[in-house]
Design goal:
Helices cover about 10% and strands about 35% of the residues. The protein has about 120 residues and is mainly beta. It has a single domain (about 5-124), classed as Apoptosis, Tumor Necrosis Factor Receptor Associated Protein 2, Chain A, CATH 2.60.210.10. Strands 1-4-9-8-3-2-7 form a seven-stranded antiparallel sheet. A two-stranded antiparallel ribbon has the order 5-6.
């Protein structure tokens, strides 16, 4: 799988407000590789973290284990469309954490990419 996909990983860092946050980290995550051309054909992937993973627990050290989508954007798709995703040596990745109570979903943990079906949530 190496050199076949662009991967996206997040990490939870220890913070001053950890005692008042909900644990384990229960929120849906959406990442968007921004199309910087006028076409607005962004690549979007969403996933629900595995609340049983140590990566989603309240941090006990400076940072937890990273978690995310190992096979997010097929590298061929990225290369074919690089002029849309990279402009002036800049790539924009937007990460949205849905923190409303309605977004908390404890159903099976899979990541979805609209053009490729389902991608397995992985821990690195």
């Amino acid at each position: 799988m190496r050199d076949q996909y662009l991967s996206i990983f997040l990490v939870i860092l220890k913070g001053d407000h950890d005692d008042i946050l909900p644990w384990p980290f229960p929120f849906n995550v959406t990442v968007r590789l921004t199309d910087q051309s006028n076409e607005n054909n962004h690549f979007v992937a969403s996933f629900r973290p595995d609340i049983n993973s140590i990566a989603c627990q309240k941090p006990t050290s400076d940072m937890n284990t990273p978690f995310g989508i190992k096979a997010c954007v097929p590298f061929g798709h990225f290369q074919e469309n690089m002029n849309r995703f990279v402009q002036n040596d800049t790539m924009s990745i937007e990460v949205k954490i849905e923190t409303s109570n309605e977004s908390i979903d404890h159903s099976p943990r899979m990541a979805e990419t609209p053009n490729d079906g389902k991608r397995e949530l992985t821990h690195h």
